Amino acid sequence: MTSTGERADGHEADAGGPEDAGRQVVSPSLHRIVNTGRYPLDEPGSADWDRVVARARDDLAADGCCVLSGFLRPELLDTLRAEGEALAPHAYYTVEKVNAYNIPLDADLPPDHPGNIVLERGNAFVARDLIPADALIQVLYTDPVFQRFIADCFGLAELHEFSDPLAGLCLNVVAPGMSHPWHFDTNAFTVSMLTRAPEAGGVFEYCPGIRTPEDENLSAVRAVLMGEGAHLIRRLELRPGDLQLFQGRFSLHRVSPVEGTSQRHTTIFAYSEQSGVVGNVERTRQLFGRVLPDHIAAAGAVRGDRLLD
Ligand SMILES: O=C(O)CCC(=O)C(=O)O
Ligand SMILES: [Fe+2]
What we know:
Elements: H1 28-33, H2 47-63, E1 65-68, H3 77-87, E2 96-98, E3 119-121, E4 124-126, H4 136-142, H5 144-154, E5 160-161, E6 169-174, E7 180-183, E8 190-196, E9 200-201, E10 204-207, H6 218-225, E11 234-236, E12 243-246, E13 252-255, E14 258-259, E15 264-269, E16 271-272, H7 281-288, H8 293-298
Antiparallel strand pairs: 1-12, 2-3, 4-6, 5-16, 6-15, 7-13, 8-12, 8-15, 9-14, 10-11, 10-13
The structure holds 2-oxoglutaric acid and fe (ii) ion.
The site of fe (ii) ion has 5 residues, from loops.
């Protein structure tokens, strides 16, 4: 099940030493970041690795969500929070009117379609090009063994960093009074880590499998959006340093309004099964307030996914 060979994507771990029986070389920086006592990312392909992967797969199969609590070494939690706090002022702050499907608000829908319910997207993203190469989250995002672990948990043969210079790795900032409203993700899977908890509110809430490829289940989605679907909603108790794996394509989810005086920060590690993903120009401008030559060059090529939800 676990691939132990060289990656075909050009990444190489930076540890020296010979490869042991085809096993992937683990970067020493990964040992320093991941709580390897609980999550044996220092032993790719070992029995312990397989055990952790199997548990993640069970959780994902059960309800599309898995929390690997205490994934980061506890002694790094202050650094994790401080790095996010230094980045947060560079987020692109804008409040946008959206719907849960991220389709145009003037789309021609039947009157009782939940896509007519207008929500406020008040979260703000710090783009990848503003995140230093040595920030904990950037080191994790780019680490080939971390990527192998994530791919194994999701049961994927391989995954790729986005080629998008802005959207691949983001800090999601939700300020007091703001929320990241109910939505479905366009991409099949998302990886995230809380880096700073709010004082209150800001809870990740989700409705496992509320829709399927065959059935939008509009009445249930509508109930949740109208505040009448409490029985469908699960709430996650996330702590900074927990790693969350989530399949958000069929599970409506949100970050509830943040209360108190401090922001909620999460890292979004965006990967794709396809290589070469770059977001489209219009959506990139909405999310980050700017576009780069790569976005213009990629227009019409591989469509970006996560941030087009
Ligand atoms: O920040 C979070 O916890 C969730 C973010 C999210 O749902 C998304 O970026 O699609
Ligand atoms: Fe999402």
